[in-house]
Design goal:
- This protein is α+β, with helices and mostly antiparallel strands.
- It contains five helices and four strands, in the order αααααββββ.
- Strand 2 and strand 3 (125-137) form a beta hairpin.
- Helix 2 (48-61) crosses helix 5.
- The relative contact order is 0.13.
């Protein structure tokens, strides 16, 4: 055997190192994917506009639990006594079943936000530019006050 030839015993030393780097790269990619999924799936609720859309959809669908979850603590007390199985869901659907809305603006100032909404279907009236007040509680945006009232009051919590 000449000096230029490599023996089969020398090659395996390089492969484990390559496999190690490949494995470390795979682990890093999985961790990065996990972080991205956590941020998008488990992070706080979306924008104030998203919360208002979800809130009105919950009212329209008669989904008392979701409406309660999207309401600030001070106003959620009003929904706390509502039994979703006691006919409240049907009542919400009757009142809000025909509602349509379109978000026309959003203003965020710190932990408070105002989302402007044009809506119709509440007793035949059309409301343009209704401000919906939201506050941030524990990192999540919450509708605070009566979202069907054109000028809800935001309680300081």
């Amino acid at each position: 055997m000449s000096d230029d030839e490599t023996t089969p015993e020398e090659e395996p030393e390089q492969r484990p190192r390559g496999r190690l780097f490949g494995l470390l790269g795979l682990v890093a990619a999985v961790v990065a994917l996990g972080v991205v999924l956590y941020v998008f799936v488990f992070s706080s609720s979306g924008s104030p506009t998203d919360v208002v859309d979800d809130y009105f959809q919950a009212l329209k669908d008669g989904d008392v639990a979701t409406a309660r979850d999207l309401t600030c603590a001070a106003a959620a007390d009003d929904l706390g006594a509502v039994d979703p199985d006691g006919g409240a869901s049907a009542d919400l659907q009757q009142v809000f079943g025909d509602i349509t809305w379109k978000v026309t603006g959003e203003t965020v100032t710190g932990d408070r936000a105002v989302v402007t909404v044009d809506m119709s279907g509440l007793g035949g009236d059309t409301t343009e530019g209704a401000p919906i007040d939201l506050i941030k509680e524990k990192g999540d945006w919450k509708v605070c006050g009566d979202a069907t009232d054109p000028s809800p009051e935001v309680s300081a919590s």
